[in-house]
Amino acid sequence: MFGYRAPEIIGLPFWTLIPPANIEAAEEVYARMLQEHSGQTIEMPHLAKDGSEVDARVTLFMHRDVADRIVGILAVVHDISEEREKRARLAQTTRLAMSDELPGVLGDRMTASTRRLTGEVANGLAGARRVEEVIRDLQSLARAEDERTAPVQMERVMAAALNLIATRLTARAEVVQDLASLPAVEANAGQLCHVFVSLLVNAVEAIEEGAPESNRITLRAWQEDGTVIGEIRDTGSGIPENIQGRVFDPFFSTKERTVGTGLGLAVCQRMVSEIGGHVDFESRVGQGTSFRVRLPALPGKTAGPVEPPTGVDTAASRAVVLVVDDEPMLRTMLVEMLSEHHDVVVAASADEAQALLHRPFDAILCDLTMPLRTGIEFHRWIREHRPELVSRVLFMTGGCFTTEDRDYLDALPTDTLAKPFSEDEVLAALSAVLEARGTT
Which of 138, 167, 290, 433 could form a disulfide with 112 if both were Cys (CB 3.0 to 4.6 A apart)? Predict the structure, then answer.
């Protein structure tokens, strides 16, 4: 490996193989091994006989005699030059796969945000902020080439990925978010964002166009036995059982040859496995597919506080908010407005919302006029069965209601949010509800 014959290398100090620039790092590993009485592994260039450098992984063990005294150090050395080259090639492949997806993502989000900006003059500033958010999320995605990791919140990364591709999703399906506030994971935020963008792209492409009201894409995050799990679930066509074993193979794809590279899932699995996690899935033809990203939770660590929007109290940040509205476009708009600051769960009807009330919510944004059961009927059920939530309901209305409805609303402890509303207006109204939660 280093060009020496056995008689030449026997008896040489090990430091002979260490480049001068790396001696200090090697000494630190050696000292840590003696201090912790445990084996250590280090990857660094080593010097060959001819002066060239060889990438090597060295695992050091303490050699003890029968009295448990340290009598020597054993070193197992592996040449990882080829492994490093493979990593570099796969990293380049990852960048190519990302660049294949980025133009479509950028086009979708910038076009949609620009339409809002030019078509709704009264809400121009809000549109401009959405453009800024898209650019910020794209910059985060572009930084995926930097392989450094840090504590990140998976649920926030999922929300950022959704922000990038929401327009493409909502054209084919209703989007549901169930993103709990979770412990941090050790990851590269840009790479993890790329993973969820890829999974969302796969989800939307598994759904036929033409019936968004009949299909659903769900983003869910939760913790289980020390593992943080992020799930993307769709109601699309599903993956045939005979090819499920190949979905993580590089260049394997069920798409047409002109669509994509077939690298997405292979790259996702590689990115996640390199930080100690893995990606798995379940799928049934005709029913849909669920992909889950699993990463070890960092006990007691978070990625730091989220800065609240202007005019919103820090105490109200990262609340769990239930949005109830029968209009898919309004639900999507509210998800976009709120998901940067709060964990958002959506329901398309009062019945669906009622089924979700087994879990705690800090606030409920509810449309007043809905088919089957109105918002007031839902509120009466809450008053009878979940009275602690009464003061947490904020009604949204376009102003068309009966005198009886008006009297009911006037008697409530919360104000009513009049449609149409801006992002600042909904955040301020929600902040008022959150500040008063728990009061009657």
Answer: 167
Question: DSSP per residue over 371-410, as a string?
Answer: SSS-HHHHHHHHHHH-GGGGGGEEEEE-S---HHHHHHHH
Measured in degrees and rounded to the nearest 5, phi and psi for residue 77 equal -115, 130
- Which of these CATH numbers, 3.30.700.20, 3.30.565.10, 1.10.260.40, 3.40.50.1110, describes 84-296? 3.30.565.10
Fold adopted by 314-435:
Rossmann fold (3.40.50)
Encode the chain (440 residues) as per-residue pLDDT tens digits: 788 887 887 777 777 888 888 888 888 877 877 777 667 777 788 888 888 888 888 877 777 777 777 777 777 787 877 766 765 665 555 554 444 444 444 444 444 444 444 434 334 444 444 444 444 444 444 444 456 788 999 998 998 888 777 767 877 888 898 988 899 999 988 888 888 988 998 898 899 888 888 899 999 999 998 899 999 999 999 999 988 888 887 666 665 543 443 346 877 888 898 889 999 999 999 999 999 999 999 876 544 433 333 333 333 347 889 999 988 878 888 888 888 788 888 888 999 999 888 888 899 999 988 888 889 999 999 999 999 888 899 998 876 556 777 888 888 877 788 877 888 888 888 888 888 764 33
Question: Do the beta carbons of residue 156 and residue 269 sit within 8 Å?
Answer: no
Which residues of 254-412 form beta strands (DSSP E)? 278-284, 288-296, 320-324, 343-347, 363-367, 393-397
Domain boundaries, the chain: 6-79, 84-296, 314-435
Q: Hey, what CATH class is 6-79 in?
A: alpha beta
